[in-house]
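::Amino acid chain::
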Amino acid sequence: MMNNMMEYKGYHTKIEFDAESMTLRGKIEGINDYVDFEAGDISSIEVEFHSAVDDYLEFCKEVGKDPEKEYKGTFNVRISPELHKKLALCAFKDGCSLNAEVEKAVYAFVDSDQSQTRALAESVRDLTETIRMDNSRYVNETTVNSKKVISFMNVKHTYKDEVISL
């Protein structure tokens, strides 16, 4: 996997290639001030990023402004009213604020390996559809709390000379 992210003095950037000008470009992410930089070759892009951060910090010092810090911890999220209500009820049941409940959910999301989770979910979905269509006698579908629950009997299927245990 390609890594085009860089960090310096607590500031981050993502390096992108501009095919029109044949340059590498970046900007400091996570702050409201706009600080960008570019380089004509790979060997100098890191130097340009460091220089942009240093220049930003020096400029702020000269004008008496506190340099912005990345990601202050506040952001707005737009979600459906139904999801908002469900989340608020979860927070109420847990005895915490809505912000605390969202923070727990975000921690769970970023601390887990999402690529594996998504791949597993897709595999289960595909397997469920296959079994539902081809082997409905092995599937038990019930509804629990308004959600469809599908359970599988412990059976073995043979496919292309391989034994697959469900």
The longest helix spans residues 42-63.
